[in-house]
UniProtKB/TrEMBL annotation:
Domain of life of the organism encoding this protein: Bacteria
Name of the protein this chain belongs to: Citrate/malate-proton symporter
Transmembrane segments: 58-79, 84-101, 121-139, 146-171, 203-226
Keywords: Coiled coil, Membrane, Transmembrane, Transmembrane helix
Annotated gene: cimH_2
Gene Ontology terms, MF aspect: organic anion transmembrane transporter activity
Coiled-coil positions: 27-54
Gene Ontology annotations for the cellular component aspect, listed alphabetically: membrane
Pfam families attached to this UniProt entry: 2HCT
InterPro entries in the record: 2-OHcarboxylate_transport
Length: 230
């Protein structure tokens, strides 16, 4: 329900944002400033990276992804209160911040991600929808209280994302879509659905990072809270 409300809300937000040009970045997250040259250089680097895509690096990216996943499972064995996915996300963030991975391996991981997102996303969305859809459970959960809670979650998180995004020099519309709506989705594949409805697919990297950091925080907090109240 939260994911459905996020998809619908993202589409409506984009239409509403057309009436407020100063709040709408039309796919750009950061407001125009004196760093335009730096952004142009980054765009050129991204184009060069895409043009150098090759099968070998895609395979390397696959191995890197599985390596982080396996390390997360090992960490979860020694600290079972924290989810393996949370460990994996934290390790990826640490690796990115500290830059312990050479650029070649980072580019390989990016290429592997592009292959999955561009080629397998529709299949993954279809498979998840068929496998996880339980009409009986869905019918039992769809009470008016549950719908109000989901709607409150979407509105609260999206409003906070827009306010804080504006304070940090980001376009409110893009902030709400990436940090607000996408954090009410079911995960990485459903980020694609939210961004597609908002016509903001170029923001997939920001949405994925926000989703993973937020998800890791929730997993860690919920793990400790579950132990406290069980």
């Amino acid at each position: 329900m939260g994911n459905l409300l996020a998809i619908i809300g993202a589409a409506l937000l984009v239409k509403l944002g057309e009436k407020f040009p100063k709040a709408n970045g039309h796919g750009k997250l950061i407001k125009e400033d004196n760093q335009q040259v730096d952004r142009n250089n980054e765009r050129l680097e991204d184009e060069d990276r895409k043009s150098q895509t090759n099968v070998t690096q895609i395979g390397v990216g696959l191995l890197i992804s599985f390596s982080f996943f396996m390390i997360g499972i090992i960490c979860n064995y020694f600290a079972p209160k924290i989810q393996a996915y949370a460990f994996m996300i934290i390790l990826v963030v640490i690796a990115k911040i500290t830059r312990i991975l050479p650029k070649y391996y980072e580019e390989s991981a990016i290429m592997f991600n592009q292959v999955i997102v561009k080629n397998l996303t529709p299949a993954v969305l279809t498979g998840i929808g068929i496998a996880l859809l339980n009409i009986n459970v869905l019918g039992q959960a769809l009470t008016w209280q549950f719908i109000v809670l989901c709607l409150t979650s979407v509105i609260t998180i999206s409003t906070a994302a827009g306010i804080f995004g504006n304070l940090f020099g980001l376009y409110p519309v893009e902030s709400i879509v990436t940090a607000g709506m996408c954090n009410n989705s079911m995960g990485g594949t459903d980020n694609v659905a939210v961004l597609s409805s908002a016509k903001r697919m170029e923001l997939i990297a920001f949405a994925q990072m926000g989703n993973r950091l937020g998800g890791a925080t929730i997993l860690i907090a919920s793990g400790f809270l579950a132990q406290m109240f069980s």
